[in-house]
Design brief:
The complex is a heterodimer of chains A (146) and B (585). With 146 residues, chain A is of the alpha+beta class. In chain A, 44% of the residues lie in helices and 12% in strands. Chain A has two domains: 3-56, no CATH class; 68-145, 3-Layer(aba) Sandwich (Glutaredoxin). In chain A, a hairpin with a 2-residue loop joins strand 3 and strand 4. In chain A, helix 3 crosses helix 4. Chain B is of the alpha/beta class and 585 residues long. Classes of the chains: A alpha+beta (146), B alpha/beta (585).
Chain lengths: 146, 585
């Protein structure tokens, strides 16, 4: 489906911007320069504003993702629920390093709070969110989704 | 309403903020994000915190409105401690290489640090507190989200100096309506930048660089090119400077706004090694003669259905080219004074002095960032090479002088070199919003009516309202004119014209607040009061000039007689006029 068609499903109001961006992300995989230009035109906002919004949210990609990205929440609550240990576990299991681009297939990143603090720690792969992750569960999750 | 500040009572109006009341009464409160041109404030820098009897915690005085029975204390231990910690946090994320920084000594963050002295940097880890690997990671992380931009012709950006005060975002959005900047990413990775980190592609008015408290956005420093040219024995360095520069230049050396420093400026340029110093004001007079002729032609050719726009402001030209290309035919084809003088330098003057144009290095000192771009335009090559080789802003010139340890206040006044250095009061007026209009009217009205003007001041078009209109009666004819400054008003005017809500014969647009006098390359800090003082100085200077009408400038008369023929002649057309390009995307 092309971007115009997706946009037409939403009224050109500011409160629909995020929803539209998410739909585009779902269809297109990311929100690139071309898409954000169309979004800006449709919502009557500047390109700078459209990019600001798209780049603010960790779950929206602003460039074509070439690798599978594994994200672990680094919000305060998740860290106190030991999300850092989960990061170490992923690093150990996939032999990758946090924020390191070296691996050809995977990349491990931290993400900002997704608002599920009561069910933390939270990790995300490919738009799928896992709640209450324990170190022992990491192996299972990675096996299923990678 | 009365409120108490530091145990003193002050009279104030409702809806005022604490900061506004303090400012009016001379009580200093430090601010990094609040700016007199950018109201309302956002309260993001947390430097203006004060203690009140209404709230338990500290409040930001730039956003807190006053209320009955309010008692404010601006300098308590609690306040100072909070300011100190906030400052320390800002420093922790700041590049902080002060000694080598372009803004050294003129940086608002540095000044605050001097005042509040964060003596120990708790938030910047010291060497023994980190393992070697952590240190590297920290550095990598810091670098990974730094953004630079030097691919555009005018501005240099380095996000490592940024304190995220959002002034540039607001000035671009609220005053210039261009919205080139946004606040990208989030939390510690937050950056002020363009969409997809593309090189800046705006109208280059440079207002962002004037309001930036640090060196995150500065003019592209090109002072080294000047030094190279002066050192080159083959090059003849010829400098011109704009009308408005002489009224603000002194501020860089501690003078109050509005100090008239023409002779000192010429002297300091000569001290720097310039061979000749000419006056852009002379070319301003020439611009007026050409533009008035163009306007007269347009009026005489029947009732002109569309207005004529002035063409002196390169940001305004870019704005039309990028956003409203349908108005391109309505812009006056006259070049801006800078480019006129540049073209004449390398043709008329070079011929007269028997110098090869390639050996002339033509420099202009401007209040403007956008002139850097204008000088690089493809069309601006009347002599075959670039007419203006280098454009320096007032700030760059001052930086160069400081580097060479030259103090203009110690120098003896000198005069312009006479060939292209005679000017009139009309040309001087170019420095502020409404000036081009007034100068053009002085010439046009005399030419249309054939009679000499009694009173030269057109009071109807003066003032600092941002969108002024007037009807000028010339004999039986009525000339409808409009003057706007700041692009938001220009946009309004264009939309008015498009919708048929207004019609004008002659429109003057300047992109910066109050015109060139509030330009993007002017000394910092800028504020409405500073600009008012500069404008007042311009009016005083105009009044004291022996010649106050452009067409009476003897040098202009001479150049038409010797070289150009008549206004609008073929040669004038070739050297003094230009064309525009549709750049809409």
């Amino acid at each position: 489906m092309n971007i115009q068609k997706i946009l037409l499903r939403f009224g050109p109001k500011a409160e629909n911007l995020l929803a539209a961006l998410r739909e585009i992300q779902k269809e297109n995989g990311y929100i690139g320069e071309k898409e954000s230009k169309q979004v800006a035109e449709y919502f009557g906002i500047s390109e700078a504003q459209a990019y600001s919004a798209a780049s603010f949210y960790d779950l929206l990609e602003t460039g074509k993702p070439v690798k599978k990205i594994i994200r672990v929440c680094s919000g305060g609550v998740c860290v106190s629920e030991r999300s850092l240990e989960i990061i170490r576990q992923v690093e150990r299991m996939l032999h990758i390093e946090l924020d390191n681009d070296a691996h050809p297939k995977y990349k491990l990143e931290t993400m900002s709070c997704v608002g599920r603090c009561d069910r933390g720690p939270v990790m995300e792969i490919d738009g799928k969110i896992f709640e209450g992750v324990r170190v022992e569960m990491v192996g299972e999750i990675l096996k299923d989704y990678i | 309403m009365q409120i108490k500040i530091n145990n003193q009572s002050f009279e104030c109006q409702e809806e005022e903020t604490i900061l506004a009341v303090c400012k009016r009464n001379g009580i200093r409160i430090p601010t990094l994000c609040a700016h007199p041109d950018l109201l309302p404030s956002e309260g993001v820098c947390r430097m203006c915190l004060v203690e009140t009897n209404q709230a338990k915690g500290l409040v930001s005085s730039c956003t807190q409105k006053i209320c009955e029975g309010l008692e404010v204390r601006t300098e308590t231990e609690k306040v100072n401690k909070a300011r100190k910690i906030n400052l320390e946090l800002l420093w922790a994320d700041h590049a902080g290489k002060c000694a080598f920084c372009e803004k050294n000594g003129r940086c608002e963050l540095q000044n605050l640090a001097k005042e509040y002295g964060p003596d120990e940097f708790k938030f910047v880890p010291r060497r023994k507190e980190l393992k070697p690997n952590d240190e590297l990671d920290l550095l990598k992380d810091n670098w990974s989200h730094a953004v630079f931009d030097d691919a555009n012709p005018c501005l240099a950006r380095d996000s490592q100096y940024c304190v995220e005060c959002r002034r540039c975002v607001r000035v671009c959005k609220n005053i210039q309506t261009v919205e080139a900047y946004g606040l990208n990413k989030r939390s510690s990775k937050t950056n002020v930048g363009t969409p997809y980190e593309m090189p800046l592609d705006c109208i280059f008015c440079g207002q962002c660089s004037v309001v930036c408290p640090t060196a995150a956005i500065t003019e592209k420093d090109e002072t080294h090119k000047f030094e190279e040219a002066v050192a080159d024995p083959k090059k003849m360095v010829v400098v011109q400077f704009a009308p408005s520069v002489r009224f603000a230049f002194g501020e860089e050396f501690g003078q109050p706004p509005g100090t008239f420093w023409e002779g000192k400026l010429v002297a300091s340029l000569k001290e720097l090694g310039a061979d000749k110093v000419f006056d852009t004001t002379f070319a301003a007079d020439l611009t007026i003669v050409e533009e008035a002729t163009e306007l007269l032609l347009k009026i005489k050719s029947g009732k002109a259905p569309r207005p004529m726009f002035t063409s002196c402001c390169p940001s305004w030209i870019l704005f039309i080219e990028k956003y409203f290309p349908e108005f391109i035919p309505d812009i006056s084809t006259s070049k801006s004074p800078q480019q006129m003088l540049g073209a004449l330098l390398k043709t008329y003057w070079a011929e007269k002095e028997k110098i090869h144009p390639e050996n002339i290095f033509s420099v202009s000192v401007m209040p403007c960032i956008s002139k850097k771009y204008e000088a690089q335009r493809e069309e601006m090559k009347a002599s075959g090479t670039r007419d203006v080789d280098l454009v320096l802003t007032v700030r760059e010139l001052a930086r160069l002088l400081r580097k060479k340890k030259i103090d203009p206040s110690q120098l003896k006044d000198q005069n312009f070199d006479p060939a292209l250095g005679i000017s009139t009061g009309a040309g001087i007026l170019f420095g502020q919003s409404g000036g081009v209009m007034e100068a053009a009217l002085r010439t046009a009205v005399e030419k249309i009516s054939g009679k000499e003007l009694g009173k030269l001041e057109f009071e109807v078009i003066r003032g600092d309202a941002e969108y002024r209109t007037a009807e000028i009666e010339i004999g039986s004819m009525k000339l409808k004119v409009a003057i706007v400054h700041e692009i938001r008003n220009a946009r309004k005017l264009l939309e008015d014209l498009k919708a048929g809500r207004a019609d004008y014969d002659f429109v003057e647009v300047m992109s910066c607040p109050n015109g060139c006098i509030g330009g993007g390359g002017m000394p910092q800090p800028t504020s409405p009061t500073a600009r008012k003082a500069r404008i007042q100085a311009i009016f005083t200077r105009d009044k004291n000039m022996p010649l106050r009408k452009s067409h009476e400038n003897p040098a202009v008369k001479k150049i038409y007689k010797e070289f150009l023929g008549a206004p609008g002649s073929e040669k004038a057309e070739e050297l003094l006029h230009t064309g525009y390009v549709n750049r809409k995307k």
